[in-house]
Amino acid sequence: MNRNEIVQEILPTPEATSTRELTQRRLDRRTLLGNGGCWFVGSGAVFAHSVYAGLIASIEKQVLKAPPVDKGTWFHPRACLTHDRILMTLQTIKGSDYFGPVHWTESKDLGKSWSEFQPVPPLGWEKTEGQGFEGVCDVTPDVHEKTGSVLALGHNVYYRGATFDRNQPPRWPIYAVWKNGNWGPRHKLQWDNPQGSYIYSNNCGQRVVKPDGDIVMSFTFGVKDKPRAVCGVLCSFDGDQLRVKSTGNALLNNTGRGLLEPSVTYFDSRFWITIRAEDGRGYLSVSDDGLTYAEQRPWQWDNGELLDMSTTQQHWVNHSSSLYLVYTRKDGSNMSVPRWRAPLWISQFDHGSMRLIQSTEQVLLPLIGDGVRDGGKVPMMGNFGVANVSPDETWVTDGSWCPKTNNSGELQIARIRWNAPNRNVLNRNGQ
Fold first, then answer.
1. Residue 97 lies in a domain
2. 244, 27 in Cβ contact below 8 A?
């Protein structure tokens, strides 16, 4: 089967194609005002830029005290708010793509203190044939209100000896469910489709829980030695089993490994997806249903200038009145930092023009060191998560990492405080 045949299998039916054309027309429309609603609170008022541009009151960096890691540091921290605590998953890193077993910790005082880091038993290492192990990485936890559980979703990864196995076998999503203080068993998310015969994954991805409990997310997927594509995915979840119900059209990019690490959010009655790529750009698309996406477009400023990125992920910060994007990019301060992976930036997204408002850009987590003359010793960022933890505060959690300084780094939280309450969180907590 060639690549064209593989792509054709996931393209929409004629009926779905007309839906995609409608979505594309919406993407091309230049609207300057937006309806700042979301599922949790219904449609909101109409906001002009002058009204909501000052939503961010302050950004404070917090460095978490963490257990020491011999020749390594803590990585992949991602958190979510449950009804009475904040739960975070994380794991160690001791080399390129070489991650330890997944751990978890919790805070009941909005991050002032944290419980002991403990292994997540179902997301540990499992021995394979020979000297190998199958681990789990890139985990994102998210609360599922309808079932009173937390779904922690990552994907499998293979190690040979004490390093990442460069000849990775096929890979797929792995998940475990936290409920009533306990972790359930390890599960594989099944997707019996030849398009994902080598890999299909939602690694590091944000997802959206619908009112009926279904989950809208995305896959990066592909066959061996071919660039990966991205598609929208709809899943059911009953508090134990996650099942794929349907998938949408394929978004394509033939450079390098293709399109990677997509993240989905919901705003203004539409689904928005941001995607990592390997052509010096990041990409954006929009969908009415979370399945049928318009052709992706590169991230750009409101003056039309493209952002220079280097194969790093982006994620959404979703306030009930506006969307923001968090990302890394090329800048005069980081010219010698590998892949420009520090600092971490945040900008407001104009969902009418589909562009970032350049005047709103600010540093979210600052670069540590000299990114021009000694970038090799600057801890790299970019494997991060986003969590709304209260109506007044949203977190971006990141584990920085510097392989040239004995794999050292910081476990850090950027605490974004809002000038106006985030109604997403007000409604979720029943307030």
1. no
2. no
